[in-house]
Structure formats: C-alpha cells, structure tokens
Amino acid sequence: MKRYQTAMTIRDKVILAIVVVSLVGAVSIALYFPPRLTNLARASLESKGVGVAEVLAYNLAVPLEFGDRQGAREMIAGLEYDRGLIGVQVTDAAGDLVAGRRFVAGTPPVLSAIRVTDHGSTLHVMAPVLGRGQWLGTLLLSFDTAVVHDEVVRNRRLTLLVSAAVALIGLVTGSMISRRLTRPIAALCVAADQMAAGRLDVRVDDSTGDELGKLARAFNDLACSLQSSRRKVEEYSRNLEAMVAGRTAELLEAKEVAVRATKAKSQFLANMSHEIRTPMNGIIGMTDLTLATDLDVEQRHNLLIVKDSAEALLKIINDILDFSKVEAGRLELEDAELDLIEVADSLTDTFALEATRHDLEFVCRFDPRTLHRRRGDTGRLRQVLVNLIGNAIKFTREGSVTLVIEPAASVSPQAIRFAVTDTGIGIGTEAQQAIFGAFNQADTSTTRQFGGTGLGLAISSQLVELMGGRLEVVSEFGRGSTFAFTIELPSEAAADWPRGDGRQALVICRALSAREALVSQLANLDWRTRAVDVGMTTADLLAALADADQRPHMILYEAAADYPAADDARNLLAAPAWREDINRVALVPAGIAGVNSAGRHLTLPIKPGALLDLLQSPDGEASDSQRETAARSAAVDLDGMNVLLVEDNPINQVFGRMLLQKQGCRVTVADNGREGLQRAKAQTYDVILSDVQMPLMDGLDMTRAIRAHETTSGGHVPIIGVTAHAMAPDRERCLASGMDAYITKPINAAELVRTIGELTAALPDAARR
Predict the structure, then answer these.
(1) pTM assigned to the model
(2) Apex CA 330: angle with CA 326 and CA 331, to 5°?
(3) What does the DSSP 8-state code read for residue 715?
(4) At what angle do helices 456-466 and 378-394 cross, to 10 degrees?
(5) Backbone phi, then psi, for 153, in 5-degree steps?
(6) CA-to-CA distance for 109 and 94, rounded, in angstroms?
(7) What are the CA-CA distances from residue 313 to residues 266, 276, 451, 548, 580 (Å)?
(8) What are residue 584's DSSP bridge partners?
C-alpha cells in the first residue's frame, strides 16, 4: 500500500482524498440515519396510539358507566378506517367484552395510566376507562408495525441514493479541483527534471497570486540564480588551474619556511643545551672534585653553596629546555622496562633527608597489589613525580608529604594511579585553574616566599598527557593539596608479594602517616596488623606477648623514638632471650646513625623494595642498610684502566682527567675527533670517552671511523658518548654511529663510573694497560 501511494501522482492523491471523504460521509449517512428513522417511526406510531387511546377511553366512560354496549360499539366503529389499527378490545370492570373483539385473553389488569407494549410485529396500547374517579373498564388497541417497516425501507433507499450522489459529486469535484491544483505542480516537476538534466533556461508560469504562483516565482528565481552561478563557475574554472598552481607554490614555500623554522628551533635547542651544559659540567664537576679534598669548614660550606646554586640553575635550564622540546614536538617517550618499586625506592632515597631537614614526614604508600614490573618511560615518570614531591616539600611548613602508588582497576586493569598529598599551604580555587599554564604560579607577587620558574607543573602536565593521563589537583587554601594522575602502564610478569596468611604484626611507631601506610600495606597482604603509638610501655608489651592469641609473629618498632620507657622497651626487644618465632624489626629514621642489636631494621621512610625484601625473608638477617652497604662494597673498580678522553673544552678536559684519575685510571686527552682517531689507531684503550660536538671531526664521525678500522684490525673498544645534547634523537644518533653508551652533561660521576664498569666488566685484567 505504501509503495502504491508513493507511485501515485499528486492529482490522483487529491482525487482519492476527496472521494474517500465523500464515501466516508455517504457511508456514515447510510449507517446512521436508517436506524434513527426506524426509531422515529416507531416513536411516531406509539405517540399516535397513545393519543387515540386517550381520546377513545374518555369517550367510552359514559357507555361503560350505564352499560350501553351499543353506544360503545358505535364509539369504536370509526376506527375501522385506520389502516394501522388491526384490533380493538373494550372490556368492563368484570373483564367481559363490551365492544370490538377479544385478542388478549384473560381479565385485563387494573391500570391507572396508559401502558404501551411492543410485541414485535404489533404494538399494544392499553388505557384505563375512568368515570367519576372509578375504574370502569379497559381499552386495548393493537397496531400493525408493518407500516413502520415500509417507511424505513423507503428511507434507507433514499439514504443510499443520496450517499451515491454525494460520492459522485465528490469524485467530479475532486477531479476538477485536482486538475486545477496539479497542473502548475506538474509543470514545476517537468521544469525541475529539465533543470536536473542541465537546462537552466527553463521557466514556469507564475501569473497566479496564490501559493503555487509564489512557488513558481521562487523556482524561476532559483533557475536564474543557478544560471548566473554556472556562468561564474565556468569562468572560475577557466582560471582555476592557474590559481591552483599559484596556491600550491605558496603552500610549498610556506611548508619549506615551516620546516626550516622547525629545524632552526630544534638546532637552537640543541645548541642551547650544548652551550649551557658544557660550562655547567665544569662548574659542578670541579666543585665535586674540590669537595672531595681536605677543606676547612668555611671552604666546604661555600663550595656546597656553589654546588646547590649550580644544581638549582641546572634544574631551571632543564625545565626551560624540556618545555621548549614539548612545544617543538621533539619530546618522545621511551617504551622500556619499568619497575615501579625501583622508582618508589629512588624517590624515597631522594627526598627522605630533604624532608627531614624541613622537619616533615615523607611517606611512600605503595599498594602491594600493584604489579610493579611494567613498560613505560622511567625517566619521564620519575621527572613528573620528582617535580610534584619537590613542590609539596617546598610549600609545606609542617606535617607530611605522601606519595601513593596504587592500581586504578576502575579505569583499566593496566592503569596505575599516582598521587602526591601534602599538608601545606594549599591552593585557592581561582589559582587552581592557572597553575598548569606555562610561567604561572599560585603566588605571582614580587614578595612571594617561594621561587621557581613556573614551568614545573606545565611540563609535568604535558608529560602526563603524553603518557595518556591528565594531571589534576584537589586543594583547599590552608588545608593542603593532592596532585594525582592515572596512566596505563602495560604490566609484565611479576612475582606476587609474600602473603601474611592471617599472621599477626605489631607496629609501634610515633609517625602517624608512616604507621598508617605500613598498616595499610600489611593489611593488603593478609597480615592481621595492630598499630599503637609510642606510648606502649614495657608492661603493655609484655602483656601483649604473654597472650598466645595476641602474640605477634613480627614486631616493627621505632627504635629511635623519644618516649617514656623507650629505653626499657628497646632493651627488652633487643634481649637475646626472645622467642625465636617473633621477628623484631627496628624502624630507624633517616639520618640516625647506629642501630641497636636487634639486627634487622628498616629505614624511615620505608622503601617498598626494603619492605618486600623483609617479607620475602622474614626470618633472615638482611636489612635495607645492609644491602646498601653490600652495594657500596661491590662498587666498580676502575683502577689501572687506560682511558682516552676526547674533548675540545679545556675546562672539561681538566675535570674529566681529574675525575678518572681519582678512580685510578690512566688518562690520555685528545683535543678533537681527528686526534682521537689517530690515538685510537696507534694504541689500544680500555674505553674511550668522546664529546659529540667538536671541531675538525666530531665524535660521531670519529666513532664511525674507529668501527670501520676495527673491521680489519679486530677488537672492539667501548666508546661512551659524552654530550650536552640531551634530546632523544641525539641518543639515537650516538648509538647509530657505533657508540656503546651515552651520558649527558653535566656529568654525574657515579653514572659515569657505573657506565664504564658495565661496559668493561667483561674485559680481562690483562687487557688493561
């Protein structure tokens, strides 16, 4: 049906609509009026019968009162001429027939009013005959309803005839109206088809003043407009090829300008990095070497100030260079192995003493449910957290700074949430909207108490976005702040933390945040943990140990706390007569020298790695300080190594020679890559340290030449690139040239020694000359 309606013309639709309306009206008349007329005819017959009965009953009162049967028959004699009346029955009070004929047996009932009964083909009207207030008899009239039926049939035929006439008139009228309405529309359709075929000179009659005339005029205007536009397009197309060629040339020129600008900016960043880091290498390096000599108190104090100032300047420089790298689109993230425990441990080492100097409590809360072996950019992640923790310490006068690392399972199975919470000065609502912008700080007044470039949070926010997250802040002025972000770090295979399996642990610690963090970590590992502050006395401790149900499997206590009975408690915990099934672990604040004889201890703030080691060997004797001592004892030995230092800067030559000689190395210096190549060909070295940017021949070309020489002479000398270029592509260029490692200026002495040790670990002692 829908397809049929879609294929119909407008004229057919108009005719169909009018015909349907007419038919609906006709059918409505045919269905409604015959029953109505039937009811009206029957009502008319009933009304007639009631009227005749009333008059006749009134006239029969006298004959019935005096028993005049002849008079009663004369009264009803005139009714024989009524076609519809088929029976008259007059009875007296005793029920005897007085006049007419009996067609209803039995004695009629006593009536007080006229009664009408319908018997289908007949209609009975029964009326009481009354005289002087007395009931004298009953009049019964019977009418034939066939007359009503004949009248209904005539009316129904007439109704059907009228309905047919209405439908015919509707059809004729619809055809005439539709022809008048659809003729202009049909003309518009034909013109539209011609226009679609490409003829824009078609026009339609728009002489009428109705809506169709307006539509026709709009169509003609559209045709004129399209015809004009076509002429313009044709004219424009003739010139388009020349315009496209000219625009293409402009775009190519603009692209070349943009490429040159990008290259110039990148080169400028590289040069800035080199030119700034080179003298900084000399300042920091020579300061470190001087601090390692015998100095008096004032000299050491002054040099420490120089070193702190130089490192602060280097941080500002790094912030500016990092921001420029992000703006230039040159900053890329590494996809390498990442150990969250190592990141947390290194941050704890970095900020533990600094927090202590500020009289703050630093806590690292590492959720042990976190799979710590991941993939990501360790350096950039650490840079963001260092910035957030450093800011938290800087803007916190008292209280604590807490680093939280926990899984964000609600976001993704691979998602990790990092949060840094402090109890510092807080940030106002308006300032929170601006702190992530470049060069913006919450306090911009000239008398602000805290320094900084205002780039740290901007860079951190951009780095977090590069890692797929968003750095957010929740803060209230005067109530502290929380900076948090969630990023996805794909997890790799990692062993679960050892579980407590319901064993009990007792934590005795004064520091509230450290105590809560330790309890939370142990609880997540199925330890039943009870924590108390340092107010536990020796008696309380003995009472806890005496209860078999409450006896802990492990006690972690703050060994250096200053509280009543602390010495007695420490002596009790250190006593050799302790039960062997209770492990004692002393919690020693950072910077506190000397540990009691309990043997096992953890340094506050507790590093996740140290806690993991403790729980993996709860009955062993290792501790974090002992591991650090073992690591120091296993330091790299560079004594006797023959090193070639290729460096064009005189200050860096002096610094490099002194640094390596202090490690026991024999150092040969070359002023540029050409001289370094000659010396490498003439003599065998254990390792070569080469600057990248040098006159005559740079370090990359020198490395390529040495590797080419080794293809015929044999051997492989480790070459370490030492450069002030600190971008990721610079590292790739160094490794691509044949260098084995890459470190940036200013040179970190420990990193340099470690790198040399790793590259030369396989060299036999006989190879060192």
Answers:
(1) 0.51
(2) 60
(3) -
(4) 150
(5) -60, -45
(6) 11
(7) 22, 10, 12, 60, 54
(8) 555
